[in-house]
Specification:
With about 450 residues, this protein is mainly α. It has one domain. Helices cover about 65% and strands about 5% of the residues. The chain has a three-stranded antiparallel sheet. A hairpin with a 2-residue loop joins strand 1 and strand 2. Helix 6 packs antiparallel against helix 14 and helix 13 packs parallel to helix 15. The protein is globular and about 75 Å long. It is an enzyme of class 2 (transferase). It is found in: Cell inner membrane; Cell membrane. Its EC number is 2.4.99.28. One of its GO terms (cellular component) is cell division site.
Length: about 450
């Protein structure tokens, strides 16, 4: 075996490490969710005659299945996930059609968002979020030159997002539709899209979204009740007014775990959409700050990992991290904002904390993907650190490579050679212009370009 073969074998034997900050924040939120679901759902479950711990057992079961799926994804190479990106996009469309199949789809309060799996219902949009993020990350890798330079490459993901949003509005699910639009916009900006060019379709969509609110009576009632919930405290403002009373009772340190009054059939959906209000009542301002801090740590760490991946030219991993960060960050922001009366009432769960089988399951899967990104990033970092001293020791001054020689592709095993090829330009040369077609020199994204 020659020296290069032995070196490649040693590099392949190097493993990675799952990010401890992500693991710690996720476990803390999951543990908090188990405690708060137990506290907030007892009265609701007894009122339905289902037993005091019905929702707790259900939540723990879904959390266990979600952890199992996350463990599988944590051991799956990202190159295998990227390989099936087109199948995942097709899966998004199929999933959104399933609730309309008679006998399979389930309608609740006029909304067709669920499918019946026998033991439980499953809200398909939760799976669509994750599948769509993976497809969009792959798309940005394959067309990251053109996304910044041409209209068609930029409009294609917006068109796909528009199709998904239209299918969601037919269910109807305005909150998830808005979330998909936000994720798409954020990932395109982080992928280097030309901001002035992108502003045109975004501004064109805003009047449509406003019209969907204004001309739909129940959505308009939510907006007006959010502005002044006390004007109709027993009607359209009932949810928000009770949520605000729960938050006000918590004061600095809360009334104590299990001592909430609003959860006793006063606050609707106390164990799902409005669980944050129960947390504020029982744990107070200090508990609220701790929860917000955990989400800030989770999302901030995900964005940091995404930036590190992009710096190492592992773009698919980086864009997946960006997408998961946007998903969890936006959803937690909206859920907390609704509970605090900062945003109109909308049914979005608090990730990992709220009771809701579909949400808990798919949030665990998303975190499994994020942890896999952290593992492969750490592995690549260790490979590069191992490679450079070996190369310096093996090469004599006479045959040392020039300073601008490309790094051997083994340091980025599993990814395209184009992704591992460094961009080199003379120090005095002007910045390269973005290519207008494929097959030209690769230009790195600049996280939203005005050029």
């Amino acid at each position: 075996m020659n020296d290069l073969s032995r070196q490649a074998t040693r590099l392949e034997a190097i493993g990675g490490r799952f990010d401890p900050w992500l693991v710690g924040a996720a476990l803390a939120l999951a543990a908090l969710g188990v405690v708060m679901v137990a506290s907030s759902s007892i009265a609701i479950a007894e009122n339905l005659g289902a037993g005091p711990f019905h929702y707790l057992v259900r939540h723990v079961m879904f959390l266990g299945v979600g952890i199992g799926l996350a463990a599988v994804l944590m051991r799956t190479e990202l190159k295998l996930v990227e390989k099936y990106n087109q199948v995942l996009l097709l899966g998004c469309l199929v999933l959104l059609l399933l609730p309309w199949i008679p006998g399979l789809g389930v309608s609740v309060n006029g909304a067709r968002r669920w499918i019946n799996l026998g033991l439980s219902r499953f809200q398909v949009v939760e799976a669509v979020k994750g599948l769509y993020i993976v497809w969009l990350a792959s798309y940005l890798v394959r067309f990251r030159d053109e996304v910044n330079a041409t209209w068609p490459a930029m409009l294609k993901p917006l068109g796909v997002a528009g199709l998904l949003i239209g299918m969601l509005l037919a269910q109807p699910d305005f909150g998830s539709a808005t979330l998909i639009l936000g994720i798409t916009t954020g990932m395109l900006i982080l992928g280097g899209v030309n901001l002035p060019r992108m502003s045109a379709p975004v501004l064109a969509v805003l009047p449509v979204l406003v019209a969907l609110v204004v001309f739909e009576p129940y959505r308009m009632r939510r907006v007006t009740s959010f502005l002044d919930p006390w004007a109709d405290q027993l009607g359209s403002g009932y949810q928000l007014s009770n949520a605000l009373m729960a938050i006000g009772r918590g004061e600095w340190f809360g009334v104590g775990l299990g001592a909430s009054v609003q959860k006793l059939n006063y606050l609707p959906e106390a164990h799902t959409d409005f669980i944050f209000s129960v947390i504020a009542e029982e744990l107070g301002f200090v508990g609220v700050c701790a929860v917000i801090g955990l989400y800030a740590l989770l999302v901030g760490r995900a964005l940091y990992l995404g930036l590190k991946c992009v710096d190492m030219r592992r773009h698919f991993a980086g864009y997946c991290a960006f997408g998961v960060a946007l998903w969890l960050g936006m959803q937690s922001f909206v859920s907390i904002g609704v509970n605090l009366g900062l945003l109109p009432t909308k049914g979005l769960t608090l990730p990992l904390v709220s009771s809701g089988g579909s949400s808990v399951l798919m949030t665990c899967v998303a975190l499994g993907l994020l942890l896999r990104v952290s593992y492969e990033l750490e592995r690549a970092t260790r490979q590069v650190a191992r490679l450079r001293p070996d190369a310096a020791h093996a090469a004599s001054p006479a045959d040392a490579p020039p300073p601008q020689a490309p790094m051997p592709p083994v340091a980025t095993a599993g990814y395209r050679q184009a992704d591992a090829r460094p961009v080199r330009a003379p120090a005095s040369a002007p910045s390269p212009q973005v290519a207008s077609g494929r097959g030209t020199s690769r230009v790195e994204p600049t996280f939203g370009s005005f050029a």
